[in-house]
Amino acid sequence: xxxxxxxxxxxxxxxxxxxxIIEGIASKQIQPGDPLPSVRNLAQDLGINMHTVNKAYQLxxxxxxxxxxxxxxxxxxxxGMPKVDASYVTLLKERLRPLISESICRGMxxxxxxxxxxxxxxxxxxxxxxx
Length: 131
Description:
Elements: H1 13-26, E1 35-36, H2 39-46, H3 50-62, E2 66-69, E3 73-76, H4 86-105, H5 110-125
Antiparallel strand pairs: 1-3, 2-3
Helix pairs in contact: 1-3, 2-3
């Protein structure tokens, strides 16, 4: 999986990296048990600071997406992905609320929002990049 970072984006680089890795897992381009590059190698490949990669990896570890082993390095959680629970649903609603609010303010209706959500989900499931 090729990770592309937008240095001009308002989204912090560590969040872009975290999101791209999660998308890679969701699209099955990265499988449970697959190794990820070391902090040093990924930072060098992307031309970013090692602390930025480390921060992304620590968040992924905290959320249960990866394991960090001294001997094996960074590995996608071989036991599977974190499951949906009440706290995740709360977080999901919290993150969606401002996006949906802005979409309504811009004149989008419910059907359009659903169409875009389905389109994104289909792209991820097919392993494609966003359009």
